[in-house]
Every structure is written in structure tokens, then in C-alpha cells.
Amino acid sequence: MKDSIDIILPVYNGEAYIIESIESILNQTYSNFNLLVINDGSTDKTKLILEQLKNTDARIQVINKDNEGLIATLNLGISLSRAKYLVRMDHDDILAPSKLEMQINYMNSHENIDVLGCNAFLIDSSGKRVGSISFPVAPLAVKAKSFVRVPVLHPSVMIKVSDKIRPFLYYDEAQLYCEDFGLWHRLLDNDFRITNLKEKLMYYRMHNSSVSSTRREDMQNNACQIIENAMKNTGISLEQSDWESFKILRNKELSKNVSLISFFSLLMRVGGGKSLRFKFFIKKELVELFLKFKIKRVLK
After folding, report:
1. How far is CA 44 from the centre of its chain?
2. Residue (of 266, 225, 271) closest to 242 by Cα position
């Protein structure tokens, strides 16, 4: 018998994209899944659309509730999930037909992996492809990237659910706007392994109403706090001046500058006391961050 998958799809006012998103799920080459769509108090036609869609396929389950926000909605979905594998999905993204099949095949042949993401094409509000996004494949490189940027695309993940990992999967209300970033660090801090497929298996929508566009400052502040705590937990100790340099680079504060001397100080402290491979990966991430920052300042 095929392994079961629960797909959690939260939606709020998603009438423009929800049909296309759900159709991409129903058209997967791997068919043994339940789609749990949680309507978070939408005020548009989302509820009506979902009521119509659920009658077309027995795998679709719809829960309508009052508006509580994304974190509460995701946590409800996790609490209701009972499958071996848990998959995240956003209401405005689209899956390639083979996504679930490729992920579950990989997970079944790599017992040591707990969370598996994938790379993605970027699309705009009209569905036009505008670029792509890639993430590390080696688990140690994923961990190193987590000290700089998000190491896995949130709506791309498949999680292997066990009694051990389940308590760590619930999102933290205190980490609003970067609850996924907090989740990855919480899992990595507790020795769960995360990696990504190199294939681009979804279409990730970019538009002006996304949280990353409307809540940028709050998201940056929360993310930096998560990174600071994670560095301390890993034994990385930064001087205040190094930490200020890091925040300028990470948050792209182009009105400020980080000198080459200041950057080298940061580079040396972040790599201290770690394995050679980890030092390589995290320094690679920081060098890329520094170079991109300098180029943006020149072009400003």
C-alpha cells in the first residue's frame, strides 16, 4: 500500500488563485493523499469555490473557521494530520505534476532525512515566469544557510512525521511573519535533517500583497532574533560590532556600509570552532551576502 500524505492548504481570500492551486494538487502523479483546505474566515468567494470543489474529489476536505491568522491555521492543520507524510502548500502556488512522487520516493530511500523541500520557478500575479529560486542540497549546507537566509522554501516541504518530530512542528505565535524560519531552526537545533531536491517542482507566486512585501521590517527583526539565538545555541559568539555588520548586510540597509575589515572580523568569528565543511559553507554564504550588498550599494 502506498504511503499516505496529508496536504495542509491554508487560504484567506484566495478566490483568484485557489482553483488553479488545487487543480495542480489533484493532477499529481502520486495520488494517495488527503487535501486539507482550511478557510481562515475568507470574506470573498473562497468559501463558495471550496464547497464546489470538494464535491468533485473525495480527497478534498474543507474546514471553514473564523479568521485567526496563518499560524493558528497551520497549527490546526498539523493537529488534524495523521498521515506518515505532511506537505505544506500555499493557495496561490502551483505544483509540477511529479512533485509529490519525486519527494516521497526520495524520502523513502533516505531514511535519515526528516524534511525535504525543492527548488522552484518564480511567477508573477498573472502566472508569468519571472525567475527561479534554488536552495542547498547537502544537509550541512542547509544548516549553514539557515544562519543567513531561509534554507528551504516553506510551501515546498514534505515532512516525515514521527512521534519524535511532531512536538516541534507547531508554529510559534511569537515568530510572526517568519514562523517558517523559526521552525527550520527549531528542527535543526534538535538534530533533525533538512535537505532539498535540486529539481524545480513548483511555481512560487510573487506579488505585492505577500507578507514579504507588506511586513518586511517586522519579518527582518524577527528573523535576526531567531538567527542570534541559533548562533548562541551553536556556540557562535559575535561581538556587538560584528552583529551590527551582519544585520546591515542581511537586511540590505543600503544607507549604511560595512567595510572590508569589519566583514573579515565577522567572517572569522562566525566560522570559529566548527567543522571544516561547516566553516566552508557558512563563509560561502557570508561572502555571497557581502558581494551582493556591495553591488546593490554601487547600483543604488
Report:
1. 26
2. 266
Has residue 225 been placed in a domain? no
What are φ and ψ of residue 58, in 5° steps? Answer: -65, -15
User: Can you give the pLDDT at residue 209?
Assistant: 53
Residue with cell 524545480: 200
Q: Nearest 5°: phi and psi at 166?
A: -55, -45
31 belongs to a structural domain = yes
**Cell numbers given for 197:** 531536491
Instruction: Of 299, 300, 265, give the one whose Cα is nearest residue 283.
Output: 265
What grid cell was written down for 8?
Answer: 495542509
Q: Give CA–CA dist 264/72, Å, rounded.
A: 42
**Cβ–Cβ < 8 Å for 145, 136:** yes
Give pLDDT, residue 272.
60
Give backbone dihedrals phi and psi of 12, rounded to 5 degrees, phi first: -140, 120
**Separation of alpha carbons 77 and 42, rounded Å:** 17
Taking the chain, what is the end-to-end CA distance rounded to the nearest angstrom?
A: 57
Q: Collect the ranges in the chain with pLDDT lower than 50.
A: none
Q: Which CATH number goes with the domain that contains 180?
A: 3.90.550.10
**Same-domain pairing of 153 and 115:** yes
Hey, what's the cell of 28?
A: 499529481
- In a domain, residue 38? The reply is yes
What's the pLDDT score for residue 207? 78
Interval 260-282: pLDDT, tens: 999 999 998 886 656 888 889 99
**DSSP string covering 197-242:** EEEEEEEEE--TTSHHHHSHHHHHHHHHHHHHHHHHHHT----HHH
- Beta-carbon count within 10 A of 66 CB: 7
- In whole angstroms, give the CA distance from residue 43 to residue 47: 8
